[in-house]
Description:
Largest sheet: 4 strands, antiparallel
Shape: elongated
Helix content: under 10%
Order of helices and strands: HEEEEEEEE
Strand order of the largest sheet: 1-2-6-5
CATH class of the domain at 31-131: Mainly Beta
CATH topology of the domain at 31-131: Immunoglobulin-like
Radius of gyration: 26 Å
Low-confidence stretches: none
Amino acid sequence: MQRWRAARLWACEPFILERLEQRLLLTSAEIIGVIPLANSRAAPVGTDITLTYDQNLDGPTVTDQTFAVHRMFTGQLVDPPHGSMITVVGDTIIFNPDNDFDPGELVFVSATTNIQNTGSEVSDKRVWQFRAGVAGGGGLFTDAA
C-alpha cells in the first residue's frame, strides 16, 4: 500500500523541463568499402588496393604500419625497400604496389584503429584478404604416354 501511495505522489509532481546544451557528437570514421572485395578470387594482378571511409582522413596517420599489405610470397610491402605508394585522397586510402601480384597469390590487408579522421578520432579496423586472378589455362590434360 505504501509503494502505491509513493508512486502516486511521484506521478503528481510537476515536471520542470530545462534546455539542453548543444553538443558536438564526434564519431569515428567507418569503413564503407574495400577494393578488391574481401575473399575475391580473381582480382587483377596489377590492381590497386583501396579502402574508403565515411569521413576524411588525417593523411600522416596512414603509414605502412597502420595500413599493412602482406603478400603471400614476399611478405609485407613497406616503403622502403619496396617503394610502394600509400596515398590518402580525402576519405580514401589508395595503395599502389610497385610490382604486380603473382597469379594466384593470396594478399592480406590490415587497417588499424591508429588511422584517424581529421578530428583526430580513431577509425574502424578491418582485415581482409583476396587472391590475385589467374589468366589462361583450360584445364585440359593430354596423355604424355
